[in-house]
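I am still getting used to backbone structure tokens and would like to learn alongside you. Label the sequence line and the structure token line clearly, so we can match residues to local backbone shapes. Go ahead whenever you are ready, and we will take it from there:
>
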Amino acid sequence: MTAFPDPGSDARVGLERRFWSKVKRGSPDECWIWQGARMSTEASSSHGICSLSGHVTTAHRVAYLLTTGPIPKGKVICHSCDNPPCCNPAHLFVGTRGDNVRDMISKGRRYDATGKLKVTLSREQVRDITDRYVAGGISQHDLAREYGVGRLTIWRLTRGMRQPRQPNEDAAEHTLNEALALLLSSLNERTVLEQRFWSKVERGEPTKCWLWIGSVTRKKYGYGRLHVTFTGKQYSILAHRLSFLLARGHIPDDMCVCHACDTPLCVNPMHLFLGTHSENVADRQSKGRTASGERNGSYTHPERRPRGDRSGLRLHPERAARGERSGAYTHPERVLRGDRSGSRLHPESRPRGEHNPAAKLTNEQVRDIRTRYAAGASKAELGRLFGVSHRSIRDIVNGKKWTHVQ
């Protein structure tokens, strides 16, 4: 669970107001039913879900956190009323997963009157579902609605059964932007897509963040995403980009949709603006959101960096490309040597002579050394005089070093 707002803070007050506005409260002994989004749209008795600090969690857990306090690690919140969407704190208690299962069995919710396991589908229905799904022409969502179960149940029954979809050779290939433009040009398709999209958004005041409660790219700090199908091909689009498209129109290929609120799950069109990738990075850096310095992962979680005996080279030395397996041996053409080296192609980029930070001599001193040597001074004398070795003097007068100084 992510960090919970402290009591009395503005974040806590806003969360409580937003949360309880979606609960139908009754008397203290009645169930308080969650009116917001549910885990399963097909089942009215499924758990409620809501967004907490940018993460999706169950509504009854948030109700417990708001009224009772922190939840111990490894524990779950159980219902004494056996009503999943209930958020009445008086009906909630802490327990382990084992306690939750034993509570279910003790109340007879696992077996029917004949002593058999309660099942929603019969063997014939399961066989019919799998046969129809393998035959194609029907989606898991359609089967779930027809048989009154969740889509996850259909997925578990049919996973791995259907053959990979064969590409339609007659269908033209479209980029994501082209597919969305064609899809949104149809009024019916646009209406269906908008209804599907906004059903997964927790909308509030126009100036507040509207949080996405659907699928996300990753659990922590991820962006919302939605899958759309066009001409038999499935496309995945980020939720905030689709929100911008629905509200404002076309997005150029080289532009990003940026967040003014810096909340990845927000899809409020008022918080979105177009910008290049460079502008997006500059905006992040100007707001201090770049994890650099002591905020970098190497500092905050050094234990996660495999160093010393835990490094990859120590654990798997056979994977290191050394000797004849190194790139210089296997692909010598990739090594920039001779006329292709950087020193030849861009000599101005190499600090030479007195411009080199390690240089002990200046151009004038090099000329003076050559003049004195031609006049009869020895290399040892010149070395002592200019504070360098006699070997350096030898290379200078023989034209092996400082060759650019005439």
The longest helix spans residues 123-135. The two ends are 71 Å apart (CA to CA).
